[in-house]
């Protein structure tokens, strides 16, 4: 039977980052994932994600954002790849918008200047047509995270340590048994970072998670000269029909945009059919109303899955908080679900955190991310 020190189950952005961090330390690590990089399933495929230094979800994330920024720059230096493209990030909403207020409160700690009203934003970025009295905050230190480029860089040179097969996990006295259709491997410890499939690997976790189908579109912009990278920011706007985010046209594919609000609940393997224009109607209407320079016909479509944490039942929180912790019943297994639609930007830092937990038995996960806030979470049994 083949053995290793650490098995990483799930090699999206988070798992690949942990895999890379362990490799850098000389750990005997193996990675497992049934999906080929770029396959349009799960949560990490596709070209880009928004990087925000200041996060409306919580001001406490700024430190994690800064650590992630350093991690992305280190990965770029080591790989010679572009991973994080700098861009401004504009957030806008009606007067009193909690989203804008929370981001602004975090940003003002660093005295970040920029447009503060819809009128000022429209003047600075003519692709927008925001109500003039709206609240706005613009982050100068944002970025476009090139997701698949990052995963390639994390895995580069270690492809022989990656096994493309579905894996089941079972703790035994000698270690963590990793079972695949053609092979069984024994690991001393395991990191489970399986995205929407994590609920099937960790009993009791399913009732604390909600997997949603998020439809993404690329729109042919009405005014392409106004939405070019370098001149037009990434954006998050809180319209009447929900929160919509988007990117400048940095690839020549059009403006990528989607709803951030949770879509329909699905299973990890039951999210078909393929995306339709009807699912993007709200996005198109929001662009036409608030970002008309970016609005236009849909030219591409995709699906992304969010794995959302519900409000905890033992130590109440606001929901959508990350899970990064050892299983209380078996600390040899580390569970990572730093998702809820806002975790990708942190992947370089979270991978380091997971590697630290795997290699240092005395290390304790951050309190906000611990599993003891949920009831009934047990180690895998099959």
TrEMBL record:
Domain annotation FAD dependent oxidoreductase: ranges: 6-357
Top EC class, one word: oxidoreductase
Pfam families linked to this entry: DAO (PF01266)
Single GO term (MF): N-methyl-L-amino-acid oxidase activity
Listed name of the protein: N-methyl-L-tryptophan oxidase
Keywords noted in UniProt: FAD, Flavoprotein, Oxidoreductase
Organism of this sequence: Bradyrhizobium quebecense
Tree of life domain: Bacteria
Cofactor(s) demanded: FAD
Gene (UniProt): solA
EC number: 1.5.3.2
